[in-house]
């Protein structure tokens, strides 16, 4: 290979190398693409500016959400949380406007925007309003139990940029997440039948 070819290849590589993202890029809301956020997501890390909610996050063993589009154009978010070793399930309606989605709870609402994220991950910046209390939170979810180091570093940089405390919840990838309530339970008879 001649020197000019090597120089050309090296100059192309230096131009195409990914530049580190600055805070302005990292906290810029993305256009809401409902198809991309639909499906199952495992809660990987989360932080909040509210001390009481941070205490609640520390009780989470594992969490999972499923964003489901229905045939009539409405959506629901199904939550499965294991907190202090106990499974908790809930289903909430979702609405969409501009680049955000809104979830209505019995005692408040949550409005979330999507921030830049690594592959197979979802970063949500949420404002939760409950009985006169406003809480800001930042979460990262993954399609699998573990994310790439670069995706986690990007999220942690977003935490810094938005001046949140270090994450109160970090999923270790080892604990099981609550089983799906919609699946029938396996009975002893079923287990015996499998052995025959």
UniProtKB/TrEMBL annotation:
<dbReference type="InterPro" id="IPR012674">
    <property type="entry name" value="Calycin"/>
</dbReference>
<feature type="signal peptide">
    <location>
        <begin position="1"/>
        <end position="18"/>
    </location>
</feature>
<keyword id="KW-0964">Secreted</keyword>
<dbReference type="InterPro" id="IPR000566">
    <property type="entry name" value="Lipocln_cytosolic_FA-bd_dom"/>
</dbReference>
<dbReference type="GO" id="GO:0005576">
    <property type="term" value="C:extracellular region"/>
</dbReference>
<dbReference type="Pfam" id="PF00061">
    <property type="entry name" value="Lipocalin"/>
</dbReference>
<protein>
    <recommendedName>
        <fullName>Lipocalin/cytosolic fatty-acid binding domain-containing protein</fullName>
    </recommendedName>
</protein>
<keyword id="KW-0732">Signal</keyword>
<feature type="domain" description="Lipocalin/cytosolic fatty-acid binding">
    <location>
        <begin position="38"/>
        <end position="166"/>
    </location>
</feature>
<keyword id="KW-0325">Glycoprotein</keyword>
